[in-house]
Design a protein that fits this description.
7-stranded mixed β-sheet, binds pyridoxal-5'-phosphate, 14 helices, 3-stranded antiparallel β-sheet, globular, alpha/beta
Length: 379
């Protein structure tokens, strides 16, 4: 392996992040729910058009809060995509729910909406959708199924901040939605997330669950004169220092999205001929979707070709990675009745997908090296 010249991801300071972190320290309030947490919540509410957003320590934790807020219990079923990150499923399993795996669409790799209805049983309580690569799921079809059967939608929108479906922001469709500000995301604070609460009836309980099961938020607003243990919950508040960093990133959202859009468009344009020649598929963005420019992936015809490209790029000091291993065939998935062959699209895509280096500060030179290395690859 040669020296790593181009990482898969490189987080970058985009604006006033460091100044705002210093301000948070000068404020003398670096625990949760200080001025920067409130500012970040408000910025996200405006961006998504949601009645309430609460910053959390991660998207994983926001998903765990969703499972608590839906009152999931042993025996309940949750329909989940097989092709997703572990947390989109594990959060519900933690509450005792059984995951029921749905396959992906062949184009966007999102949950296949045509398969959802046959997976619904009297025990189904929720449908979890993941807007893969920040390209919206078919929310018209999925919302109609959820309404018809009276089940909740939870949007795992870890990839989809800034994206839209039929002009409406992702994260605004589900009863609850979750965001990630992990270092690999378009805007980040290292580790962080948010719970988006679109059903106003859940706001007060969400505040309690996030504050260790206490009514401390009401206490701080002067609505009760002491705070106490009123529900289950945990510690899901990030430090105000992290919120300050995130505000610095959010202030630069337009510039970040412009940079990412340019990187994405250049990959798409300059790899089109190569992809055609090698039977490689580039990402599909349906006309009703405005994507978030979260990632750029390519789909090889076979696992062998994907592995050969990873090794070739690594020999040039370029890091490209793959994900997700289908959850229906994971050790835990098998325990919940998943089996190989249940989700053929997810299982096949998992072997063939490769994510290319993609980050806000990717220079033209860096991207040229990646594109040239890809063109130079020989099977
Ligand atoms: C679809 C999806 N959901 C959830 C997560 C978890 O996010 P976090 O690291 O903020 O907990 C990820 C992580 O990348 C993800 O890709």
């Amino acid at each position: 392996m040669s020296e790593l010249l181009i990482p898969f991801n490189r987080p970058s300071v985009e604006g006033r992040e460091l100044e705002l972190v210093q301000q948070s320290i000068a404020n003398g309030h670096i625990s949760g729910d200080g001025v920067f947490t409130k500012r970040a919540n408000a910025m996200l509410e405006a961006l998504i058009g949601a009645p309430k957003v609460l910053l959390t320590t991660s998207c994983t934790h926001a998903l765990e809060m969703s499972a608590i807020l839906l009152d999931l219990k042993e025996g309940d079923e949750v329909i989940v995509p097989a092709f997703t990150f572990v947390s989109s499923v594990n959060a519900f399993v933690l509450r005792g729910a059984k995951p029921v795996f749905a396959d992906s669409r062949g184009d966007t790799l999102n949950i296949d909406e045509t398969q959802i209805e046959r997976l619904i049983t009297p025990r189904t309580r929720a449908i979890v959708v993941v807007h893969y690569a920040g390209v919206g799921c078919d929310m018209d079809a999925i919302s109609a199924i959820a309404d018809k059967h009276g089940v909740a939608i939870v949007e795992d929108n870890a990839h989809g901040l800034f994206a839209k479906y039929r002009g409406r922001p992702l994260g605004s469709f589900g009863k609850l939605a979750t965001q990630s500000f992990h270092e690999t995301k378009n805007v980040n604070c290292g580790e962080g997330g948010a719970l988006v609460i679109n059903d106003a009836a859940l706001i007060e309980r969400a505040e309690i669950v996030r504050e260790k099961g206490t009514n401390r938020s009401r206490f701080f607003r002067g609505q009760v004169d002491k705070y106490t243990w009123v529900d289950i919950g945990s510690s899901y508040l990030p430090s105000d220092m992290l919120a300050a960093y995130l505000v610095g990133q959010l202030e630069k959202a337009d510039a970040i999205q412009a940079k990412r859009g340019a990187v994405w468009d250049r990959y798409a344009t300059e790899l089109a001929g190569w992809a055609n020649e090698h039977g490689v598929r580039l990402p599909v963005v349906p006309p009703e979707c405005e994507q978030s420019y979260h990632m750029f992936y390519v789909l090889f015809p076979t696992l062998e070709e994907r592995q050969s490209m990873i090794a070739h790029l690594m020999s040039q000091g370029i890091m490209a990675v793959f994900h997700y291993l289908p959850l229906n065939t994971s050790e835990m998935g098998l325990q919940f009745g998943g089996k190989a062959g249940d989700c053929p699209v997810a299982e096949s895509v998992s072997d063939r997908l490769l994510r290319l280096p993609f980050y806000n500060g990717m220079s033209r030179d860096e991207q040229s090296r990646v594109i040239e290395a890809i063109h130079a690859w020989r099977r």
